[in-house]
Amino acid sequence: MAGVRALGALSRITARRYVLSGKIVLNSFDLSFFLARTHVNYEVKEDVAVIRMNDPNSKVNTLSVRMQNEMIEVFDEVLANDAVQSAVLISSKPGCFIAGADINMIQACNTSEEVTKLSQEGQKMFERIEKSPKPIVAAINGSCLGGGLEFAIACQYRVATKSKKTVLGTPEVMLGLLPGAGGTQRLPKMVGIPGAFDMMLTGRNIKADKAKKMGLVHQLVDPLGPGLKSPEERTIEYLEEVAIQCARGIVHKKISLTKKKGMMQKVQDYVMGIAFVRQQIYKNVNGKVMKMSKGLYPAPLKIIESVKTGLEQGPDSGYLAEAQNFGKLAMTSESHALIGLYHGQVACKKNRFGVPERPVKNLAILGAGLMGAGIAQVTVDKGIHTVLKDTTVEGLSRGQQQVYKGLNDKIKKKAITSFERDSTLSSLTGQLDYSGFEKADMVIEAVFEDINIKHRVIKEVEAVIPPHCIFATNTSALPIKDIAAASMRPEKVIGMHYFSPVDKMQLLEIITTDKTSKDTTASAVAVGLKQGKVIIVVGDGPGFYTTRCLAPMLAEAVRVLQEGVNPKKLDALTTGFGFPVGAATLADEVGIDVAAHVAEDLGKAFGSRFGGGNVDVLKTMVERGFKGRKSGKGCYVYTPGLKSKDVNPDIDDLLEKFKLTPNPSVSSDSDVQYRLVSRFVNEAVMCLQEGILNGPVEGDIGAVFGLGFPPCLGGPFRFVDTFGADKLVEKMRRYEEVYGNHFTPCQLLLDHAKDSNKRFHK
Amino acid sequence: MKWGQPLSLTLIVFSTATRSLSTSVQLHAQVQTKSKKTLAKPGVKNIVLVEGVRTPFLLSGTTYADLMPHDLARAALQGLLHKTSLPKDAVDYIIYGTVIQEVKTSNVAREASLGAGFSDKIPSHTVTMACISSNVAMTTGVGLITAGQCDTIVAGGVEFMSDVPIRHSRKMRKTMLALNRAKTLGQRLSLIGSIRMAHLTPELPAVAEFSTAETMGHSADRLAAAFGVTRLEQDEFALRSHTLAKQAQDAGLLSDVISFKVPGRDTVAKDNGIRPSSMEQLAKLKPAFIKPHGTVTAANSSFLTDGASAVLIMSEEKALAMGYKPKAYLRPAYGTPKVLARAGLTMDDIDVFEFHEAFAGQIMANLKALDSDWFAQTYMGRKAKVGAPAMEKFNLWGGSLSLGHPFGATGCRLVTTVAHRLLKEGGQYGLVAACAAGGQGHAMVIEAYPQ
């Protein structure tokens, strides 16, 4: 069932990419408005008008006000031109048809009515396209997303290239919005109700051949190789030629616009024609959305509502519902949070440290464990020659197999071919010694988290690497300056904190010490960006930013367990707040031993403020072999091959031994949630206060993409803005009375509480 | 001289390999007259083509249907022996090219030469390089002569598309091999019991290239589109090929074809794929690979063909000593522009062109590429285009589109045809070029032997 996958996306929102483009708004005094058309132009080729889009100010086309106005103008001229019988709509940009609506256009609105009006204007424009007496063929090469897709499906016919860059989709849901220009009404008719829900609720990208199968496009065109022009240029030209043929074919009735329905299609249509069946689908999808989103995300529900209104009450009500719901959603805090994350992510995909002096072409990784192999996997397919070094053949083989499997899984998803896998793997060298390190531009160590081992490794490596080579250390808690103490060249030492599993988690936390040179940082960021990471660069200190925020929350989680809340309930409370993974499960995933280690280290560094639960709970668990998922037992018991998990029965008597009596005044479900979250948020704000963080944007991105802070809240800083620093402080004071300094709000948070004009995000 | 060097572009007639051409500059300087008298260089052994023959090329599934590849190769070898009266022990080495291998005769050169009555003391090996396999067989022979190891070489090629090795699925093969090792009845029964319907799906020989997963026809269609070759141009070219082939056949110019008594069937003496048609007929066909807007059709592609070819290559000295009248000098190298540069010739110096026509779209694209400054600058590192060959010198006796294209055997046909055309038309230099799957190609200059 389609709706099903949908919802996975919401819980995994951190793992998804936002595709809508955030284009810079045109200056209000942009004089070019009065001049000739700059975004849309057309050429008449015999009886076919070829309408070409090209935003001169951006790498991608967006449906900005300007683009829309010019499009309407051109469309009017094309309709008025008697020589023209049909039209082709095409982008002159390689790799982009239309990437979506201009988000800033929506953000510039102050009321839901204004946004509704925007939506209605879009609907009107596309209605004219749909009802055009002259057939319009959309010729799609590159991203065709959001408003771009809605435009394309309003056209009479669609031809798309099979280029890897050609993707179709409705990613609005990931910004807390819905397809607001007729998408919710046209898609169900085009790809069926289940298919439409799948697209709109997951926001996933659909590749050209899948789009053809779904009935989203009519015809495919192969991308071309070298010829008499550059491949990109000639491919667009070829697409245009084929689209022109199609346009003429439609006019001359050689191509029929009503496609023949297969048996399956007829059956499906018949079934969908039954009101009862449709009701069941709405109910079913709704139930799944609620289960996955815990009701924290309004957009999927509004999408279902808009589709339902259109199908049950007719198009007029449907389009109206779509426009009104679009307006409502645009004003929700969830949408603001998600759009904020989108912008933040775009910002964290740039290198603010400039271009490094020499690009990293040879990278060596020490330690072929889970992290080391993961780093190798995301590096080797980016054209960087990668050395993976371990100390034992067994360890190395395991790591090499992990990289192989990672690439092989991509073949199964048809993302790459087996040939590409093989040629990629030819850039990976597995070895046990330091041979070839004299050519390394960067070494990333991912050995065991023990300062003595790290010191030994840094000395060994520095004996063999060239002077320009950067030494990056992958640690989740050891201060970088302590590691760098063993280095002869601390300016070349930097921290690169990856998150597990490296190929799935988007965040990379880069840690600089006051000795790290700017070029070293620029180089580390450049490598991270190549690896496809979203990057935050933070200052050095125990736990840096991410681990430091997580530690107090986990300490609180342990206390909650000691107070008699069982792991399942604890998980329900945290996921109910919007965390994609519950606190108990998270501890199991991270590893109870790691958690114990971090809790103890950071406890020493920060003192009693990091207290809460008894560290001995974790230590005892480790002693008894409950190290989390990796050992098969932690808070839960993990049976291989089984997805469901039961609470570890042995943990009850263990917790019994450490039992604390809960104070009823701070132990309601809601209080438990805020106890967990407020400690996280307070620590994040403190990191900003202490200059560990460069700004609230990186703080939000780090928390959401690295730790799974609820995306619907947009990160700890946006949460403070939305929730109110004063209200948060009030809650913390109440908890402080019971538990002491664990809950003492930091100065910056207090400043914001005092002055409601103070906001982290403008 | 070098040979067998793979080139990095899909269209190989123009190579982009970065081999150093230290001598070419010097050679260039020597070009003063339009045509150099000879490409012979002092101290370098001249290698000559003494004779070339081929079996008739037949559409697969016709008269050859019940044979095996080595039968065709043997027929070509016997034809060569017959035509040259060469003593069977006078050959130093036999090399054959083939593409789709019959697993029973994987060294088809050996099976065919023994069957043709050559001495078992003569070593023979098989080479493969897609559609230029027999070109490689020839250049390997040229190399052996140049190196002084051999004086007399028989090179050839064979392809048999009437039967191809269709395998059991990997799963089934695995089960069958395990069955071999099974010791007890119980083990055998349990293995047999594990066979499912899915095991029975056969595996056809790859129609697609292994590394790109693209079929040749699909690739040719994209290539044609990339160079803006229209359907009309392709159909015209195909029609030209068939028309010229028919004329050549009727005029008895295809003298390399030997007649072959097929066991259990009639004697064949003529190619059977030559079908001059009309533009209207050709226009009716639907695209064969890219639908619905593709331009490559069954009629403007070469068809599946059975056939074999063989040539006798010798050092000039040896040929003269044995009393042969050589037909031409062989001067192999790679890629049209490169081969011309090495020889110190220009396109104008060439009198006879024989290019392999896998698809009309491919050959037209190649011609356009040769004629494009942009392509030469962007993809070949040249300052200017090489220029396209003059059509009045180009494939005048038909080509792979009309005569057929038994993959492994085409190269020898091209070389023999150039030699015969030089004799007939009276030119000095000929150029052979062919492309092959995997983005490889081959070119060779052939110089007329003074008559």
UniProtKB/TrEMBL annotation, chain A:
<keyword id="KW-0456">Lyase</keyword>
<feature type="domain" description="3-hydroxyacyl-CoA dehydrogenase NAD binding">
    <location>
        <begin position="363"/>
        <end position="540"/>
    </location>
</feature>
<keyword id="KW-0276">Fatty acid metabolism</keyword>
<keyword id="KW-0597">Phosphoprotein</keyword>
<keyword id="KW-0488">Methylation</keyword>
<dbReference type="Pfam" id="PF00725">
    <property type="entry name" value="3HCDH"/>
</dbReference>
<dbReference type="InterPro" id="IPR006176">
    <property type="entry name" value="3-OHacyl-CoA_DH_NAD-bd"/>
</dbReference>
<dbReference type="InterPro" id="IPR006180">
    <property type="entry name" value="3-OHacyl-CoA_DH_CS"/>
</dbReference>
<dbReference type="InterPro" id="IPR006108">
    <property type="entry name" value="3HC_DH_C"/>
</dbReference>
<dbReference type="InterPro" id="IPR012803">
    <property type="entry name" value="Fa_ox_alpha_mit"/>
</dbReference>
<feature type="site" description="Important for hydroxyacyl-coenzyme A dehydrogenase activity">
    <location>
        <position position="497"/>
    </location>
</feature>
<dbReference type="GO" id="GO:0004300">
    <property type="term" value="F:enoyl-CoA hydratase activity"/>
</dbReference>
<feature type="domain" description="3-hydroxyacyl-CoA dehydrogenase C-terminal">
    <location>
        <begin position="675"/>
        <end position="754"/>
    </location>
</feature>
<dbReference type="GO" id="GO:0016740">
    <property type="term" value="F:transferase activity"/>
</dbReference>
<feature type="site" description="Important for long-chain enoyl-CoA hydratase activity">
    <location>
        <position position="172"/>
    </location>
</feature>
<dbReference type="InterPro" id="IPR029045">
    <property type="entry name" value="ClpP/crotonase-like_dom_sf"/>
</dbReference>
<keyword id="KW-0808">Transferase</keyword>
<dbReference type="InterPro" id="IPR018376">
    <property type="entry name" value="Enoyl-CoA_hyd/isom_CS"/>
</dbReference>
<feature type="site" description="Important for long-chain enoyl-CoA hydratase activity">
    <location>
        <position position="150"/>
    </location>
</feature>
<keyword id="KW-0472">Membrane</keyword>
<comment type="pathway">
    <text>Lipid metabolism; fatty acid beta-oxidation.</text>
</comment>
<comment type="similarity">
    <text>In the central section; belongs to the 3-hydroxyacyl-CoA dehydrogenase family.</text>
</comment>
From TrEMBL, chain B:
<keyword id="KW-0256">Endoplasmic reticulum</keyword>
<keyword id="KW-0496">Mitochondrion</keyword>
<dbReference type="InterPro" id="IPR020616">
    <property type="entry name" value="Thiolase_N"/>
</dbReference>
<dbReference type="InterPro" id="IPR016039">
    <property type="entry name" value="Thiolase-like"/>
</dbReference>
<keyword id="KW-0443">Lipid metabolism</keyword>
<dbReference type="GO" id="GO:0005741">
    <property type="term" value="C:mitochondrial outer membrane"/>
</dbReference>
<feature type="active site" description="Proton acceptor">
    <location>
        <position position="435"/>
    </location>
</feature>
<keyword id="KW-0999">Mitochondrion inner membrane</keyword>
<feature type="active site" description="Acyl-thioester intermediate">
    <location>
        <position position="131"/>
    </location>
</feature>
<feature type="signal peptide">
    <location>
        <begin position="1"/>
        <end position="22"/>
    </location>
</feature>
<keyword id="KW-0276">Fatty acid metabolism</keyword>
<keyword id="KW-0012">Acyltransferase</keyword>
<comment type="pathway">
    <text>Lipid metabolism; fatty acid beta-oxidation.</text>
</comment>
<dbReference type="InterPro" id="IPR020615">
    <property type="entry name" value="Thiolase_acyl_enz_int_AS"/>
</dbReference>
<dbReference type="InterPro" id="IPR020617">
    <property type="entry name" value="Thiolase_C"/>
</dbReference>
<comment type="subunit">
    <text>Heterotetramer of 2 alpha/HADHA and 2 beta/HADHB subunits; forms the mitochondrial trifunctional enzyme. Also purified as higher order heterooligomers including a 4 alpha/HADHA and 4 beta/HADHB heterooligomer which physiological significance remains unclear. The mitochondrial trifunctional enzyme interacts with MTLN. Interacts with RSAD2/viperin.</text>
</comment>
<dbReference type="GO" id="GO:0003988">
    <property type="term" value="F:acetyl-CoA C-acyltransferase activity"/>
</dbReference>
<dbReference type="InterPro" id="IPR002155">
    <property type="entry name" value="Thiolase"/>
</dbReference>
<dbReference type="InterPro" id="IPR020613">
    <property type="entry name" value="Thiolase_CS"/>
</dbReference>
<feature type="domain" description="Thiolase C-terminal">
    <location>
        <begin position="329"/>
        <end position="447"/>
    </location>
</feature>
<dbReference type="GO" id="GO:0006635">
    <property type="term" value="P:fatty acid beta-oxidation"/>
</dbReference>
<keyword id="KW-0808">Transferase</keyword>
